[in-house]
Amino acid sequence: MQHNILRPRQAxxxxxxxxxxxxxxxxxxxAALRSLLTSIDLSESEEHVKNHLRDFLKxxxxxxxxxxxxxxxDLVIHTGADTKSPAGVMLxxxxxxxxxxxxxxxxxxxxxxxxxVLYYLRERVEHKNHDLKQLIITNVHEWFVFDALEFDRLFxxxxxLKKDFxxxxxxxxxxxxxxxxxxxxxxxxxxxxxxSISYTWFNLKEYEKPLKNKDLKDDVKLVALYKLLSPAHxxxxxxxxxxxxxxxxxxxxxxxxxGLEEVKEGGRKLIRRKSRPDAGSLLEAAYQKLKSxxxxxxxxxxxxxxxxxxxxxFNVALELCITWMNRILFxxxxxxxxxxxxxxxKVYAFMNPEYLRExxxxxxxxxxxxxxxxxxxxxxxxxxxxxxxYLNSSLFETTALxxxxxxxxxxxxxxxxxxxxxxxxxxxAGKVLSKSQADMRTMEYMLRFLGSYDFGxxxxxxxxxxxxTLITASVLGLIFxxxxxxxxxxxxxxxxxxxxxxxxxxxxxxxxxxxxxxTWELADFDALRFRLxxxxxxxxxxEANQLxxxxxxxxxxxxxxxxxxxxxxxxxxxKAELRVLLNRQGxxxxxxxxxxxxxxxxxxxxxxxxxxxxVHQHPDGHRSINPQVQELQETLFHEKQTIIENxxxxxxxxxxxxxxxxxxxxxxxxxxxxxxxxxxxxDFKINRISAxxxxxxxxxxxxxxxxxxxxxxxxxxxxxxxxxTLPNIDINIKQGxxxxxxxxxxxDLHEAFGKKGHSLQAYREAVGxxxxxxxxxxxxxxxxxxxxxxxxxxxxxxxxxxxxQRMAKLRGTIAAVQxxxxxxAVKVDKAKLAKMKKELQKLEVERExxxxxxxxxxxxEWRFEFPEVLDEQGNYRGFDVVIGNxxxxxxxxxxxxxxYLKKHFATFAGTADLYVYFVExxxxxxxxxxxxxYIVPNKWMRAGxxxxxxxxxxxxxxQQLLDFGDLPVFExxxxxxxxxxxxxxxxxxxxxxxxxxxxxxxxxERGLSEYLQNNGYxxxxxxLPDSGWSLSDSTSQxxxxxxxxTGIPLGEYVEGKIYRGVLTGLNEAFVIDEATKDRLIAxxxxxxxxxxxxxxxxxxxxxxxPKSDRYLVLFPAGFTKEKAGNLNEEQAWKWLQENYNALAxxxxxxxxxxxxxxxxxxxxxxxxxxxxxxEFEKEKILWPGISVEITAYTLDKKSYYGNDNVHLIxxxxxxxxxxxxxxxxxxxxxxxxDAVRGGYYxxxxxxxxxxxxxxxxxxxxxxxxxxxxxxxAAKQADASADTAALEAAIDLQVYRLYNLTxxxxxxxxxxxxxxxxxxEAALYLSN
Length: 1327
Prior knowledge:
Layout: E1 2-6, H1 8-11, H2 14-17, E2 21-22, H3 23-39, H4 46-60, E3 67-70, E4 73-78, E5 87-93, H5 111-126, E6 134-138, E7 142-147, H6 148-156, H7 159-169, H8 178-191, E8 196-203, H9 208-212, H10 223-228, H11 231-234, H12 248-258, E9 260-265, E10 268-273, H13 282-292, H14 309-341, H15 359-369, H16 379-384, H17 400-404, E11 416-418, E12 439-441, H18 442-451, E13 453-454, E14 463-464, E15 469-470, H19 473-485, H20 495-518, H21 525-534, H22 538-549, E16 553-555, H23 562-577, E17 593-597, E18 600-604, E19 616-617, E20 623-624, H24 627-647, E21 648-652, H25 655-670, E22 733-735, H26 750-753, H27 760-772, H28 776-799, H29 802-818, H30 830-852, E23 879-884, H31 897-904, H32 915-924, E24 926-937, H33 947-953, E25 957-963, E26 977-983, E27 993-998, H34 1007-1015, E28 1017-1020, H35 1034-1046, E29 1047-1049, H36 1050-1053, E30 1058-1060, H37 1067-1070, E31 1071-1073, H38 1074-1083, E32 1091-1095, E33 1110-1113, H39 1119-1124, H40 1129-1139, H41 1141-1147, H42 1151-1155, E34 1180-1184, E35 1186-1187, E36 1194-1196, E37 1201-1202, E38 1206-1209, ...
Parallel strand pairs: 1-8, 2-14, 5-6, 13-15, 16-21, 16-23, 21-22, 23-24, 25-27, 32-37
Antiparallel strand pairs: 3-4, 4-5, 6-7, 7-8, 9-10, 11-12, 17-18, 19-20, 24-26, 25-26, 27-28, 29-41, 30-38, 31-33, 32-33, 34-36, 34-38, 35-40, 39-40
Helix pairs in contact: 3-4, 5-8, 7-8, 13-14, 14-25, 19-25, 20-23, 23-24, 24-25, 27-28, 29-30, 40-41, 43-46, 46-47
């Protein structure tokens, strides 16, 4: 057995490792550890040692968990608060002096290991515990920590060991003592293991020095040990760094300061303007200023902000507030970054009320500091903000909306805001400040609030000396997605989803790109890695880097930019794994490990230490940065910059989302911002490793060794003051409606590109120059030039529009007819001329409607907006990857936009939700062979509105369908999400397979990829039926196909006599209880004619005769006219009072509500028209429309009516009832019907009617009927009667009816007990 020994730091999740540990938690851990080590007596018994360990664990971490012995196991940490919860960690404890039983790092094959294996197998095999996370052997000083997945792989999954354990525990071995098990079973097994085993080893004696040292700085050496023993590692509990880990306190108080609130409405959480606005909030301050000075009316098109003035004021104010808050939060991250670079030096803390007292100060910081070079700043600004670098980001340029309305400096400095009741702010005694102070100046409140949180999370493992909650860039993205997304139907996608989707789609695209470029035929990413490593040279690495940079990735509903950030991280990791992550000289970078964990990019050295960019202060006063650290920081910055500029693109209809996405990408660059070692270097264009460049200029290196000060007398004066400036990445993230375009992707632009100065090359160069320029004047010129080019495109496309060409031709014909010829006037055909003029007028109206149509507001022209996806001739080539989570907007909310969708989308269906069209648009935007990956609701796979989409998607190659069912992937709503991945190529083979999975958990110990390896299956694409897709492996698909071929659809079998129950529209009036029924009949016996027994879905149970104490008042549509004639409502009501007086009196109080129904009959007391009311009077088979028990069919002999959750088949054949309740029926329906939350299924008529019914001869039918009669009789006598044996006999008959093989039966019924030989013999005889 090979040993892979990890040190604590190496064993930890890297994202968890870099989370700061609070000082209070560290002190609690230190006290508990000191107590443990001082209490240990080498002469004490093992029992005493267990007690000391339990006390240590409880006082350090596990005071809210059950920690105790369990059976023979020395110590167990349970997953819950008491020992009744499952065991999560098992400890085998030895005395410190017992070295004979303890394993060593050279040899694990000792008694302690044997005991641990035994207790593990007992827990897994006998107690069926699937919650074990870690297993530990310790003698207090030495610790061996094994991940339970290692024991699962090596011991539990070994069939022979498991068999030996089971036989030993059952007394079937020659010895039954534990000693026998240790020596005769486990020890030989471990000795014979050839596989490696990974575990963490440490000795607590190594930590005694920092534990006893009074210097708190030494405590950082205890951080890895602290985290290793914490619940986040030992119990694998979630920790607060994932983008989903929203701190509610921060979120809700930030909303309060902005002027918003979160409310629940219809099961959804919405963000809205506060119902009781606070005049001091940012939103209200901006709103009132806009209103009082009527600033909205000066906008070019205020209606883009809403239809009413109130909507416009709110939305303009909100956009301004989000712009300002974006800048403020970016500055908080910058502040934390600078402090981290300088080891917490407080001089870099500039976001506080001492520096910024007024809104004017913030405005000054935005525009006179961050947007100005130091030498261009005024003297007082330069002195006040001397440590703040120039960033050259569009984020700190006045927006068009600010220029037309407000800047933050226009807000009142003396405005005061009431403190949030549960504010994070505390008074001197540590109590909530709102209890002693009602309000505070808004500016001061905002800065003190932000100062109460830690924004400096990225980077090194450290101890948080102040008790501050962590706020990461991911959390900020989540917050703004929630603020923006509530009305757009968008939800923030969890990190594990964006990480997985980005990894899969981008790696497929990378392999495709290399295969195309080198004409290789590599199957997957691993094959590509081996090929590149086998032929690795500096030139090949440079070429590979450029190939990756040539990828184009787009999110057409970009939101906060989460997918693009995940894509950025994935591309960095791909380069690192392929050894083509290049430094500024074009040489591969060699530095430990670069990986993505918890959707964060993590960089560690070869010893597992987190990478940290830090300026070191030396004793002699000079400062320096480790050259290797400088090289890595520069590399990461410029590789990220290159990827963002060349590879990442996004579009969103919401302007605030666009701003936030740009912010997220700037933040990703900020994480690796580095100090320029020569002030002059930042002013010339750095030659980047881009898709367009063919070489690198080694002179452009910024290595620290080459730095020379511009001030020889004081060499450090201008060192480490200026960060590398940020590029203008905003041009890649654009606002617009991704589904709406005036011009198709195939529109001809050759004429436009032929114009002087407007060539494709000029267009590309202008875009490239915009991204790199530091000059505001140059940016303005380029913006104007780019708009000029695009206007030229629009003009060309408009002139080439077929409608315009038809109009021009018609005008020419009319002119020719009207003008005299060479020999004078000709006779004009007036009728023909009038007809042509009328046609021209019609075309002009059509053109004007198109050009002025409000539907086209916000149209986005994919044809020319991104020159990066045009080929050398200017034709649309397409993206390599389209990825995202499109908005979930129901079709009822689409309004007139449906007319456009119907005309322009092949997948249109009247009831289709918006995401359907995003799927079509996303795939259309791809180049041939491109990769598509969305997460969307799964309903399109089975719903009628998805039929067009299913057929359209199948013209391409499906890669994955991963169904999360009703799992709560999104916090805000249950959306039944599905990851669908497609390659834009026609299927190479008709019977190709795709990967599928029905995912049943969100707890992926080793990631979603490994979960799919163990739980995914392969689906044969051509067996996915047009009627609806069901995900099952190809073997199950083939069985379903056999069932379909063996029988005929149920709907056809019963000649279409399948119906659903009655919709009253007002149950409180028309559905009555038994007492009311009896009273009405007693008052008027005629009432009995129209009162019917009534069922609801939950009354229906498998084979149990239905019962109910509900009744339906049934005046069907047409009843009154048939009985009384064609009367007006007043006359008809009088007739009803005379003929059904008791019912008329009963219904009269419901008149107003009943009249409002949309589904009433001719009069308000009548139910809607229904052609099959009389069918309810017959014997019939019933089933519930939604049920946990899929086969819950029963027979009704009492003429029950039912609600809309009761479905009926007008047939009383007991053999049919037996087939419907059989396991074959259940197997088919599970694969066909929609699963919904809570384990329920929707048993819709359109699904049930597809159930294939095998044609049986009379003898077979009679056999099934006889068994069904016995079941019904037993259930009639006692609803709880055990009829399992009879039902098993029915199942057997049905298996034979469908001619299932023994293996097919096992697919339907995995626990089928009949021996194969017996079944096959009986099947042979029956045939």
